Amino acid sequence: MGALLASPWATWGIAGLAIVGVITRPFAWPEFVWAVAGAGLLVLLGLLSPADAWSGVGKGTDVYLFLTGMMLLSELARQEGLFDWLAALAAGMAKGSASRLFSLVFAVGTIVTVFLSNDATAVVLTPAVAAIVKTAKAKEPLPYLLICAFIANAASFVLPISNPANLVIYGRHMPSLLEWLPRYALPSALSIGATYVVLRWTQRGKLRQDLSGEVEISNLSGSGKLAAFGIVATAIVLLACSAFDLQLGLPTFLAGAATAILVLTRSKCRPLDVVKNVSWGILPLVAGLFALVEALEKTGVTRALAGVLQGLVQHSATLAAWVSGVALAIGCNLVNNLPAGLVAGRVVELARVPDHVRSAVLIGIDLGPNLSVTGSLATILWLTAMRREGHNVGAWTFLKLGVLVMPPALLIAIAGAFAFG
Fold first, then answer.
1. Measured at the alpha carbon of residue 284, what is the angle toward residues 22 and 269, in degrees to the nearest 5?
2. N or C: which end of the chain has fewer CB within 10 A?
3. 3-state DSSP assignment of residue 331
């Protein structure tokens, strides 16, 4: 028994079961329960020391701060009626056209993802779109809500700040903004365009519905305007941090906290109402995943994978880019792209791969999650927001659509990366 526990297979097995629990949510228990339980069991069995577990959790500090700031901004905007106001505005601009509203929501989702990150799209935009379809009296709301999930991943490598996974992949070797833009501009444009075309085509039947064109747009309250200002200011801060190669977590948290203080001094909402409605379970979920990845690193799996990748690069850098990009795009749906990105970032650092191989890895990690509901943290956040708004999308329903949407965007985006590399 002792020999079995000392084997790397025991660590891999427990980590794998924990991730399966996150994906399938047995007994309808929250995702974080399974991630934390898996990490706790590794420590209890001596497969991961408490110090190493704490070290792994500590590596996620920037992500925790980032998510906390974004969730505060989202809840403030929701409670101050910003989403309802935006919903009425968008529904009015659509003028009763289901197709026009689809394109409008897609464009807004792209902008939010680019400047506020894919997690913000899931947290901030999903409630707004839910309000839009309710205001427009859409009989088929799902096409619009699906946009929030798919564009959150499809547009998540336009800028370094568009996805926290980007920071994980590059680590201390993050390109400057002037290097990033030419490297990822074409792949991003191709990814966004392909996603729009396929998603629009698959939803064409449901977009034949009639929407209400008579929408009353009320004035946004002063505190609602402050919440909107806070979101815009946060986007500017994040863009500036990205340009100066600064970590995003603390600035996002401070921006969210400052906005909360500013808004709540003018609002009728109580601070407790804001705090209790934030989805705090996301933080232990991420912490548990970081601890699981730390345990996997201790087994030597990252060094082994780095050796395999190095061998591929020596044989053919082009082949290495395609294999790693496609493999990670599929693999992150099995283990979630956050732990996959953590492992992949370490692997490419050890393997010292060419730029276009690293680009393919990043595209696979960012775009691959459009295959399934559990591929990325953003999609899990989207599911949480959907449940809060009274909507539900099954894993099989999402997978049937993801099989059509993700592969074309992935292949054309990786091909586009070669234009720079």
1. 115
2. N
3. helix
Please name the amino acid found at residue 242. Answer: S
CB-CB neighbours of 399 under 10 Å: 14
What percent of the chain shows pLDDT beyond 70? 96
Contact between residue 166 and residue 385 where contact means Cβ atoms under 8 Å apart: no
Q: How far apart are CA 161 and CA 237, in angstroms?
A: 11
CB 100 within 8 A of CB 136: no
Distance (Å, whole) CA 108 – CA 93: 13
Q: Which two tokens stand for residue 156?
A: 């998540």
351-379: pLDDT as tens digits: 888 888 999 999 999 999 999 987 888 89
C-alpha 234/C-alpha 402 separation (Å) is 31
Structure tokens at 72: 């505060």
> Is pLDDT at 60 greater than 80 in this prediction?
yes
Question: Where does residue 394 fall: left (phi above 0), alpha (psi -120 to 50 degrees), or beta otherwise?
Answer: beta
pLDDT, residue 1, reads: 46
DSSP 30: -
